[in-house]
Specification:
The protein is α/β, with parallel strands linked by helices. The protein is 30% helix and 19% strand. Helix 5 links the parallel strand 10 and strand 11. The N and C termini lie far apart (65 Å). The protein binds iron/sulfur cluster (SF4) (2 copies).
C-alpha cells in the first residue's frame, strides 16, 4: 500500500543528512524572545543584573494558551527590552551575557509512576515550554489536552519533506531509543493505545534502525511513506496514515487524529526523563551563500550573525535569509534576530536562488491546480486576488490554503501565488476581527440602552 495523498510536487530536496551534527558554539550574548509560540506572550520573570542558570525559566504567562521560555546559557541578565524577532517586529526579549559555565537548573526527572500518568506528563510538557517544533509552535500540552477523548489515532510526523532540512532525520539516527520513548510518552498523554510514525522512505536508514529497536514494545508502528512534498502537512499525514480526509476548514482532531512532530517527541523525552526544558535543537543551515550545509545543534537565542560566522562565513553575498525550508519558509528581516524553538532551518540564499520575476503573466496552463493537495484552484484565487475581490477568494476557499507553496513551485510563469494567498488570509483575519469587534460594540451599546 502506498501511504501518500493526492497532489504534491517533487522539488530538488538538497538534503545532506550525511553531514554530521556539529555543535554551534554558544554566543557571548543570547537573546531570548518572550514569544516563541502561538498564544499569549510571556512576561519576563527576571530583571537586569539577575544571575540565571541554563534551563531556568525566565518568562511565562499563566493563561492556558502560552508556553514558558527558558535560558539557554548561564550568566547575567544585561537587558530586558524589545529586540528584533526572527518573524519581524521588535519583541520583548531577555538578553543574557554568557558566562560559558553552562551551570544547569534541571527539573527532577519524572518518576516511574509519573511516566505512566497522562496528567503528570502534560504538566511537564507545559513546564518545559514544549511547542510544535515542526514550525507550528503551538503549545503541545494544549494541543494534546484538546484532543483527549476525541482522538483515536496518534500520528507522529517523520516526513520532513521540506528541502534542505535534516534535523528530524538526524534525531532519528542519533537518538532512536530516546525518540521512541518520547513517542510513547505522547501516546500515554493522548490516552491512545498506538502511535503511527509516518516516515518518508528517503529515510530508509532511520526506518530500519527504528524497526530494529522493536517499536511495538512502546506501542508504535512505523509507517513508510512515499516521498512527496508536502507529505509533512498535518492533513496529508492524516490521509497517508489513516485514509481519513480532514474537511475544509477542519482540524485533524475533527477526524479523530492528532499529529505531533518528531522533534517535539524528542523534546518531550528530554523534559520527562532528563528534566530539561526546551533550549536547543538541531537546525540545518544551507543556501549557496554558505560554504556548505551545516547541521548544527544550536541554542535558542543565538543570533543569525553569530551562526553565519560559526558556519565558516559567507562565500557569496546573501540576498535573503529564509527561516524553515524554501517551500514554506518565511524571510527574516534582520541578521541580529535569534533562532527560536520553532527554527528548523536557516537558509542564506543568494540572488541565483531567488525565483522572483518582474511582472509575471499567467499562461492558463492549470499546473497549479493539479498539484494543490487541498484541491483548490490557485489560478482563480489569484485572479480574484489581483482584482482585490476578497469575497470571491473566500468562495474559492482561500482560507483552506495552508501555504505549502506547491502551486508556486509548479507554476511555469512564476506567479507569486503563495505570497498572494498568505497576504489575503491575513487581510481576512483582520476583516473578521474588525467585524467581531463591531458586533460586540453594537451588542454592548444595545445592552446599555436597556
Ligand atoms: S493553493 Fe495553497 S494549499 Fe494549494 S498548492 Fe497553493 S499554497 Fe498549497
Ligand atoms: S500554473 Fe501559473 S501559469 Fe499555469 S495556470 Fe496556474 S498560475 Fe497560471
Amino acid at each position: 500500500m502506498s501511504h501518500t495523498f493526492k497532489g504534491g510536487v517533487h522539488p530538488n530536496y538538497m538534503k545532506a543528512p550525511e553531514v554530521p551534527v556539529t555543535v554551534i558554539a554558544p554566543p557571548s550574548q543570547v537573546v531570548i524572545p518572550m514569544i516563541q509560540h502561538i498564544g499569549a506572550p510571556c512576561q519576563p520573570l527576571v530583571k537586569v543584573g539577575d544571575y540565571v542558570k541554563m534551563y531556568q525559566k525566565i518568562g511565562e504567562n499563566p493563561v492556558p494558551v502560552s508556553a514558558p521560555v527558558h535560558s539557554s546559557v548561564s550568566g547575567k541578565v544585561i537587558a530586558v527590552e524589545p529586540r528584533p524577532h526572527p518573524l519581524g517586529d521588535m519583541i520583548m526579549s531577555v538578553v543574557i551575557e554568557n558566562d560559558f559555565q553552562d551551570t544547569p537548573e534541571l527539573m527532577p526527572p519524572l518518576t516511574e509512576e509519573q511516566l505512566k500518568d497522562p496528567e503528570a506528563i502534560l504538566e511537564r510538557i507545559r513546564e518545559a515550554g514544549v511547542v510544535g517544533m515542526g514550525g507550528a509552535m503551538f503549545p503541545t500540552a494544549v494541543k494534546i489536552r484538546g484532543g483527549i477523548g476525541k482522538v483515536d489515532k496518534l500520528i507522529i510526523n517523520g516526513a520532513e519533506c521540506e528541502p534542505y532540512l535534516n534535523g528530524d532525520h538526524l534525531t532519528m539516527l542519533n537518538f532512536p531509543t530516546q525518540l521512541l520513548k518520547g513517542i510513547e510518552l505522547v501516546r500515554i498523554a493522548n490516552c491512545v493505545e498506538k502511535a503511527y510514525y509516518g516516515i518518508e522512505v528517503n529515510k530508509q536508514d532511520a526506518i530500519n534502525l527504528l524497526n530494529s529497536l522493536n517499536p511495538a514494545q512502546y506501542g508504535i508502528e512505523i509507517v513508510p511513506e512515499e516521498v512527496k512534498y508536502p507529505q509533512g502537512g498535518e492533513k496529508m499525514q492524516v490521509k497517508a496514515v489513516t485514509g481519513r480526509e480532514v474537511k475544509p476548514g477542519g482540524l485533524p482532531s475533527g477526524v479523530g487524529c492528532n499529529v505531533v512532530s518528531t522533534r517535539t517527541c524528542y523534546a518531550i523525552y528530554q523534559a520527562c526523563y532528563e528534566g530539561k526544558s526546551v533550549i536547543e535543537r538541531i537546525v540545518t543551515y544551507g543556501g549557496s551563500a554558505l560554504k556548505g550545509p551545516v547541521n548544527g545543534l544550536t541554542r535558542v537565542g543565538t543570533p543569525f550573525k553569530h551562526i553565519a560566522e560559526q558556519c565558516g562565513g559567507f562565500v557569496k553575498t546573501p540576498r535573503k535569509i529564509v527561516l524553515g525550508g524554501p517551500m514554506m519558509g518565511i524571510c527574516a528581516t534582520s541578521f541580529d534576530a535569534p533562532t527560536v524553538k520553532g527554527t528548523a532551518g536557516v537558509l542564506f540564499f543568494t540572488e541565483e536562488e531567488d525565483r522572483h520575476v518582474e511582472n509575471p503573466t499567467c499562461i492558463r496552463c492549470g499546473k497549479c491546480i493539479t498539484v494543490c493537495p487541498m484541491n483548490l484552484e490557485p489560478v482563480f484565487m489569484y485572479m480574484y486576488y489581483s482584482k482585490g475581490d476578497y469575497e470571491n477568494m473566500e468562495k474559492y476557499h482561500v482560507m483552506d490554503c495552508f501555504e505549502c507553496g506547491s502551486c508556486s513551485f509548479n507554476c511555469p510563469a512564476r506567479m507569486p501565488l503563495t505570497h498572494a494567498f498568505k497576504t489575503a488570509k491575513i487581510m481576512f483575519q483582520v476583516k473578521m476581527a474588525k467585524e467581531k469587534a463591531k458586533a460586540e460594540a453594537e451588542a454592548a451599546a444595545k445592552e446599555a440602552k436597556k
